[in-house]
């Protein structure tokens, strides 16, 4: 199948920040039959991220604030050079402004199948400010698009009043697809120690708790944009995948569930999705938007 110019065997992608950090892990993700992997977000210079604790479990989900740790673009290009997979690798990038996004896009596009712009980390002040402002989103997407020769995906934040305005801005800037959603602003407090649990205080909620928020975002975007939508948020089963596809997504990304289960969970979901497709006598594309199209 082809989603925004990315050729994938199936619509199951691994989302940014979970496993896509080394050539060895790319091989394991491919062996688990993922359609594509999105890497950890990469910046121009190495970033250590926040002090621990950076992750905490809550009811129906996980809150994280890692602080975008990554080895920087030079080291990551070397890591991409060690990769032996044929599965598409989508490199997630982030910068402080459109010039940094453009430089990253220009340097990384020869080494990947597509770029995903992180316009949505809920606890990196600069990124959230970009991702909540349609004008900035359009400028950053346009700069990255002009600097690269691979598809450019814009990953959107749910932490806005109307995600369709941001999706339309990304489309206007030339995005080949939008990805929705990144995590939802959240925090947790240790009532015995009397302080926030995460070192950064605030973080982003992922996991089953946010699936209905993600499905609604995809539904709303499907009524607004003409480019493909990649659904993200709380996907842990084949039924979740179908719900996102029915809502208007062309593909999905999984993250938290792979931590709750294991990498082979992708294979289990793919096998069950294939059985469902056979029972409906449809291919993956045939599932896209089935319910959404009934509510124009
Ligand atoms: C992190 O590294 O803290 C998470 C990144 C993100 O939510 O985009």
Would you give an account of this structure?
With 296 residues, the chain is α/β, with parallel strands linked by helices. It is built from 11 helices and 16 strands. It has helices at 23-31, 73-82, 98-108, 125-131, 134-147, 163-173, 211-222, 238-247, 256-260, 265-280, 284-287; strands at 2-3, 6-7, 12-14, 36-38, 55-58, 61-64, 89-93, 114-118, 152-155, 177-180, 184-187, 189-190, 195-196, 202-206, 229-232, 251-254. The strands form 4 sheets. Strands 3-4-7-8-9-10-15-16 form an 8-stranded parallel barrel, surrounded by 6 helices. β15, α8 (238-247) and β16 form a beta-alpha-beta unit. α5 packs parallel to α6, α7 runs parallel beside α8 (238-247) and α8 crosses α10 (265-280). The longest helix has 16 residues, at 265-280. The two termini are 25 Å apart. The model has no long low-confidence stretch (mean pLDDT 97). The structure holds succinic acid. Succinic acid (SIN) binds at residues 17, 41, 64-68, 118, 121, 182-183, 204.
Indicate the topology.
Elements lengths: L1 E2 L2 E2 L4 E3 L8 H9 L4 E3 L16 E4 L2 E4 L8 H10 L6 E5 L4 H11 L5 E5 L6 H7 L2 H14 L4 E4 L7 H11 L3 E4 L3 E4 L1 E2 L4 E2 L5 E5 L4 H12 L6 E4 L5 H10 L3 E4 L1 H5 L4 H16 L3 H4 L9
Parallel strand pairs: 3-4, 3-16, 4-7, 7-8, 8-9, 9-10, 10-15, 15-16
Antiparallel strand pairs: 1-2, 5-6, 6-14, 11-14, 12-13
Poorly predicted regions are none
The residue-averaged pLDDT reads 97
Strand order of the largest sheet: 3-4-7-8-9-10-15-16
Query: How far is it from the N-terminal to the C-terminal residue, by CA?
Result: 25 Å
Q: Find the count of extended strands (DSSP E, 2+ residues).
A: 16
User: What is the percent of helical residues?
Assistant: 25-40%
> Main β-sheet: number of strands, strand sense, barrel status?
8 strands, parallel, barrel
The proportion of strand residues reads: 15-25%
Bound molecules: succinic acid
Q: Report the principal-axis shape.
A: globular
Radius of gyration over all CA atoms, rounded: 18 Å
């Amino acid at each position: 199948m082809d989603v925004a110019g990315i050729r994938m065997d199936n619509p199951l992608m691994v989302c940014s920040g979970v496993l896509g950090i080394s050539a060895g892990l790319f091989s394991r993700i491919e062996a688990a039959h993922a359609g594509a992997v999105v890497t950890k977000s990469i910046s121009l210079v190495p970033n250590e991220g926040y002090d621990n604790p950076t992750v905490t479990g809550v009811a129906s989900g996980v809150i994280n604030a890692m602080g975008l740790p990554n080895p920087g673009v030079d080291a990551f290009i070397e890591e991409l050079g060690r990769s032996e997979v044929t599965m598409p690798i989508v490199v997630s990038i982030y910068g402080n402004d459109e010039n940094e996004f453009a430089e990253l896009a220009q340097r990384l596009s020869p080494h990947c199948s597509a770029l995903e712009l992180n316009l949505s980390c809920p606890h990196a002040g600069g990124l959230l400010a970009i991702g909540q402002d349609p004008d900035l989103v359009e400028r950053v997407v346009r700069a990255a698009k002009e600097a690269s020769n691979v598809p450019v995906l814009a990953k959107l934040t749910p932490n806005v009043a109307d995600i369709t305005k941001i999706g339309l801005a990304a489309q206007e800037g030339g995005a080949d697809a939008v990805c929705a959603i990144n995590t939802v602003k959240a925090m947790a407090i240790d009532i015995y120690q009397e302080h926030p649990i995460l070192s950064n205080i605030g973080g982003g909620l992922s996991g089953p708790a946010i699936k209905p928020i993600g499905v609604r975002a995809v539904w709303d975007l499907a009524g607004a944009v003409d480019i493909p939508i990649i659904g993200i948020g709380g996907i842990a089963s084949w039924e979740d995948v179908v719900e996102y596809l029915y809502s208007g997504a062309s593909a999905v990304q999984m993250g938290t569930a792979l931590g709750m289960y294991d990498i082979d969970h992708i294979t289990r979901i793919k096998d069950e999705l294939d059985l469902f497709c056979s029972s409906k006598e449809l291919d993956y594309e045939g599932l896209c938007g089935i319910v959404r199209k009934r509510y124009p």
